[in-house]
Amino acid sequence: MDLRRPLTRLLILAALLALWSLAALGRLAYLQLFRYGDFLARAEHQQQRIVEISPKRAEVLDRNLHTLAMSVVVDSCFAVPAEIADTQMVARLLGGVLDLRPEEVESRLASSRSFVWIARKLPPATAARIAALNLRGVYFQKEDERFYPKRQLAAALLGYVDIDDKGLGGIEYALDERIRSKPGRMLIFTDARRRWYDSTDSRPDAGSSVVLTVDENIQFIAEKELAAAIQRTHAPAGSVVVQNPSNGEILAMANWPTFNPNAPAGSPPDARMNRAISALYEPGSVFKVVTLSAAIDQGLTTPGEIVDCEMGAIYIGNHRIRDHKPYGRLTIAEVLAHSSDVGTIKMGLRLGAPKFYDYIRAYGFGTPSGIELPGESRGLLRRLENWTPVSVGSISMGQEIGVTPVQMISAMSAIANGGLLYRPRVVLALRTGAESAMPPQPEPRRVIRASTAATMRRMLEGVVLHGTGRLARLDGHSAAGKTGTAQKLDPATGRYSVTQLIASFAGFAPVNSPAVAILVQLDSPVGPHEGGVVAAPVFKRVAEQVLAYLNVPQDVPLPARTLRAKRNPPDDIGLADVSDFNPTVRESPETPANSPEANHREPLVPARTVVLMEGEGVAAPFLAGKTVREVTEICQRLGVNPVLVGTGIVLEQEPAAGAAMPRGGTLTVRFGRPVAQSSQRPLSPKSPVKPPIRHSANPSTRPLSAMNAWGGP
Fold first, then answer.
1. Residue 287 belongs to what H/E stretch?
2. CB of 526 within 8 A of CB of 233?
3. In a 3-state reduction of DSSP, which class is residue 699?
4. What per-residue confidence (pLDDT) applies to 631?
5. Planar angle of CA 114, 115, 120, nearest 5 degrees
6. Positive or negative CA dihedral for 699, 705, 710, 711?
7. What does pTM read for this prediction?
8. I want to staple 167 with a disulfide (CB 3.0 to 4.6 A). Which of 172, 373, 440, 518 is the partner?
9. Dihedral angle, C-alpha 119, 120, 126, 129, nearest 10 °
10. Mind giving me the DSSP string for 471-536?
11. Close Cβ partners of 598 (under 8 Å, ≥ 6 residues apart)
12. Separation between Cα atoms, residue 525 and residue 589, nearest integer Å
């Protein structure tokens, strides 16, 4: 082959080019067919960045579908540092708006070239100030932020979320996977110099809305009265729980201290605690309902049996247990009404430790109730083999056992509904789109016979009528319940404190067809500390407003003096209605009104107060013709406290419509059925016409069984 010939050289060059082309095509084929996925991933890693966006949480609603928690769209600020020429200047400007040190902002900008968060979920005013700076390389991204429109209302029950909208307490945590959808994604594209040139985002889908059993109006009533009791007694903590005894639904769960879930970081940990399910306490005399109902259910006693209360002292082993009063011979009904420790202990000893333990467990103590909330305590109940010889006596009167408010109200509800223990619940339904699903509920468990529950209802009504719970007596409705005053253990000495006590009252109303069961618990009140003095009046206030709001028919005639008092309310004296009692005697919850000891107590002189108009006042609304529910909602919006008398529609109100009144003042409203009169003009704000008060010719009367259940007065 002559290499000097041009044709030969061309052929050699063509062959080399062909070989090179084949090699290049082979390499391209190899990269395209076998290494495509690897190089694509590396390119995406260099050119793209995925940033998660907070997921959109579904709403939390009350039982009437009023919004308690929702998500709102806000702006979050981010930066692309590669586009910022002067990071120090930008850091200084952003730091001034965000109240951050410029060094901190500059450190964030130096952490990446393509994307950094500057501040997330900004208030609209702050976002507007940053936008007005018109800084190159600083951008905004829409995110969802959790918002609680009612602020502190039901805060511990609802819970709160973190910056990424993850539930950290209450229902927000318990049902986080159902409420929280998958997070959204923002895809950022960058060039070879890590400069951002495009982005796309996918919005997160909504989760399942939660409908609670709570009624926001009943919750407001409970929280309002609890806050008033805390202010009055200076107790550092407390709880009010309202339950429907016929199905276990929680209608209200109020706690003190409380917090604003919109800004949970600004509150101490104890304020974020749901005391109704987590705070253990010794129930004291309220627990006597368990002891006596167990003894009656076993046929070991009857309400009319007479028991010698040993003038206030009993010995168990080498231990002497003293009663709060030296009672002699009492019937079992009177033992409960006057809260005799000795009489109750004798029934506990008659019942025996094994049976007593079985009933305590049957009532749900010593085990979680199963409510759909995190952080519930199981209570404190030692195993039977660990009981001491004194345990039966101590537990019979509510010592040596720890319970939660939810456990205690569930036990009281079992007596109210005929002996069935329902699992307390706060979730009514889960809604996804147009579909609504009811969570499965276990069947209620029978604790005591229906006849035993009926007997206990009559006995508990006696506590309110002529026992330690007289300050819980309602206007227009019958009520039953039990007071409790339990000493707290002093950590320093290991003994029961004489100054730190738990005051409580648990009851239900009406007696024969209970609509609500209510527990009031105040931790360490200052001054008067007995449950019948400080907790029973709170029960009265809550129960009267809730029963009126629910339009529960009255089963007791409204006393004429009470009607006159509510039509012309006196100055606020900060106490419950004590019109049935001697106003010159301060009664202990454990002291009968006619006992010799009561006559030697210091006089109680109600101090009259003058109500001053402070701050912004409001005009009394025009309420004629409105229902109880409508009145409650209007008063809640205006920030005034309604006193509701009767049922039906509004006939009278005081102050009159349009009159000036302070926020937090009292608005008395009387309900009834209007009298049809052709000549009567309709009510108007300018010329109110008050229909005459008419009394039924056949007023409702109390059931005979409720008035004389065991031969007592």
1. none
2. yes
3. coil
4. 84
5. 170
6. positive
7. 0.72
8. 172
9. 60
10. GG--SSS--EEEEEEEEEE-TTTSSEEEEEEEEEEEEEESSSS--EEEEEEEES-SS---IIIIIH
11. 585, 587, 588, 591, 592
12. 15
Residue whose structure tokens are 């511990």: 156
The region, left, alpha or beta by phi > 0 then psi within -120 to 50, assigned to residue 55 is beta
Q: What is the DSSP string of 583-639?
A: TT----TTS-TTSGGGGGSPP--PPP------S-EEEPP--TT-BHHHHHHHHHHHT
Phi, psi of 431 (to 5 degrees): -115, 125
Q: What is 324-378 written as a DSSP string?
A: SS---EEEHHHHHHTT-HHHHHHHHHHH-HHHHHHHHHHTTTTS----S-TT---
Residue 288 CA to residue 702 CA, distance in Å, equals 26
Helix, strand, or coil (residue 155)? helix
DSSP-H helix ranges across 34-169: 36-47, 87-98, 102-109, 124-133, 155-158
608: phi then psi, degrees, rounded to nearest 5: -80, 145
- Take residue 17 and report the two structure tokens written for it: 């080019």
Number of Cβ within a 10 Å radius of residue 435: 9
Q: What's the rounded Cα separation, in Å, for the pair 285 and 396?
A: 9
- What does the radius of gyration of the chain's CA atoms come to, in whole angstroms? 35
Tokens of 550: 């629910």
Q: Are strands 67-79 and 60-61 parallel, antiparallel or unpaired?
A: antiparallel
Say how many C-beta atoms besides its own lie within 10 A of residue 178's C-beta: 17
Taking alpha carbons only, the member of 332, 362, 353, 326 closest to residue 344 is 332
Buried/exposed 641-660: b ≥16 CB within 10 Å, e otherwise: bbbbbbbebbbbbbeebeee
Residue 346: phi, psi to the nearest 5? -60, -35
Tell me: pLDDT of 593 over 70: no
> Do residues 290 and 360 lie in contact, with contact meaning Cβ atoms separated by under 8 Å?
yes
In sign, the C-alpha dihedral spanning 359, 363, 369, 370 is: positive
- The CA-based angle 649-67-247, given to 5 degrees, is 70
Mean pLDDT estimate for the chain: 81
Label the pairing between strands 60-61 and 209-212. parallel
Over 60: is that where the pLDDT of 460 sits? yes
Q: Distance (Å, rounded) from C-alpha 218 to C-alpha 550?
A: 9
Q: Mean pLDDT lowest for which of 42-46, 196-200, 485-489, 490-494? A: 196-200
- Cα 45 from chain centroid? 48
- Give the CA distances from residue 351 to residues 296, 303, 626, in Å, rounded to whole numbers and listed in that order: 9, 15, 53
Q: Among residues 284, 233, 342, 241, which one has the least CA distance to residue 484?
A: 284
Longest Cα separation, the chain: 143
Interacting residues of 436 by C-beta distance below 8 A, sequence separation 6+:
211, 429, 430
**Distance separating alpha carbons of residues 109 and 139, to the nearest angstrom:** 13
Query: Residue 240: pLDDT above 80?
Result: yes
Q: 385 phi and psi, to 5 degrees?
A: -70, -15
Exposure string for 377-394, b = 16+ CB within 10 A, e = fewer: bebebeeeeebeebbbbb
In single-letter form, the type of residue at position 257 comes to P
Give the Cα separation of 289 and 412 in Å (integer). 8
Give the distance, in angstroms, between the CA of residue 634 and the centroid of all CA atoms in the same chain.
22
